[in-house]
Design a protein that fits this description.
about 300 residues, alpha+beta, five-stranded mixed beta sheet, elongated
């Protein structure tokens, strides 16, 4: 069958028409008709496709997909919709196409194809995928910025409150104790006054880095504000909390203070979690403890239970 048998208007549609015949046993499926769109869109010389084995028109992978998926669907349901296949371009390229196929009701060996070149569609899809990836990356960055302290890389005060509520709720359900350490860098105002705020920022950033590296995955570590930091440790008894405080003192031991020893005062509390226990209550207890630590000379841990 040639294209001249059908009305010329058929070739004006912006989609391809293809007719193939199901191969007899041991034979090959053959193209019996291809509209001008098929020849032009996929790079074939006019009128060259009729008589071509379907396996030469499709890539090897698509020929396998046709035999294993499309043909069984046709024989079972009489049609197969929106299948993505690839055409073997005469120059060796692979051209994507979307095919809708239907089995002829009068001649069940004949398959009618409606198809179109999907190159532009795939390009748009890839552009959309890339745009979505960029938007997701930007959303993650914005979210990270919204929960993180810029200087230290630790959680900020707002995110600390949100996560602390979750930790306390879980600890209450499991009948666990929680520890809260409130840490204050001693004489930080003098460090700023003597060496400038830029130097003070470097001290804060370095302490923040060390806190991130030393903390456990389950710990909630945040910069509360200024030179104050908070470490909330779930499922921690007094002994565990005291060891954590000792490590924090050691962390500051070799921080560059431009000739001044950088030390910290720590207020520590350990409480049995319950529905009545709030982060504000924990913080108030640790805050009371840190005032006692400062009153006793700083560079120490004070516990309030």
């Amino acid at each position: 069958m040639s294209s001249s048998v059908l009305p010329i208007e058929l070739n004006h549609f912006p989609a391809g028409a293809l007719i193939t015949e199901i191969a007899p046993a041991g034979g090959a499926s053959v193209i019996r008709y291809a509209s001008d769109y098929v020849h032009e869109s996929f790079g074939f010389a006019p009128g060259s496709l009729p008589g071509t084995p379907l396996a030469r028109f499709l890539t090897r992978a698509s020929a396998i997909l046709f035999d294993s998926h499309v043909l069984p669907q046709l024989l079972n349901a009489g049609h197969c919709s929106e299948t993505l296949l690839e055409v073997r371009h005469p120059r060796g390229l692979k051209v994507p196409m979307i095919a809708n196929t239907r089995l002829s009701e009068r001649d069940t060996r004949r398959i009618y194809w409606g198809l179109f070149n999907a190159t532009h569609r795939n390009r748009l899809y890839q552009e959309l995928v890339e745009a979505r990836r960029l938007l997701e990356d930007q959303a993650r960055q914005l979210h990270q910025m919204s929960i993180t302290d810029d200087l230290t890389g630790l959680l900020n005060r707002r995110e600390l409150g949100r996560l602390a509520s979750q930790v306390l709720a879980q600890a209450s359900r499991l009948h666990q104790t929680v520890a809260l350490l409130l840490i204050d860098i001693d004489h930080f105002k003098q460090i700023n006054d003597e060496h400038g705020h830029a130097f003070g920022d470097r001290v804060l950033a370095e302490f923040g880095r060390r806190l991130r590296e030393q903390g456990r995955a389950a710990d909630v570590i945040a910069r509360y504000g200024g030179e104050e930091f908070v470490v909330l440790i779930p499922h921690a008894d007094r002994q565990c909390a005291e060891r954590a405080a000792e490590r924090l003192h050691r962390l500051m031991h070799d921080v560059d203070g431009a000739g001044r020893a950088v030390t910290v005062s720590i207020g520590l509390t350990v409480q049995e979690a319950s529905p009545e226990l709030s982060f504000d209550r924990l913080f108030d207890l640790a805050d009371r403890a840190i005032y006692e630590a400062k009153a006793r000379g700083r560079n120490r841990t004070q516990i309030v239970l």
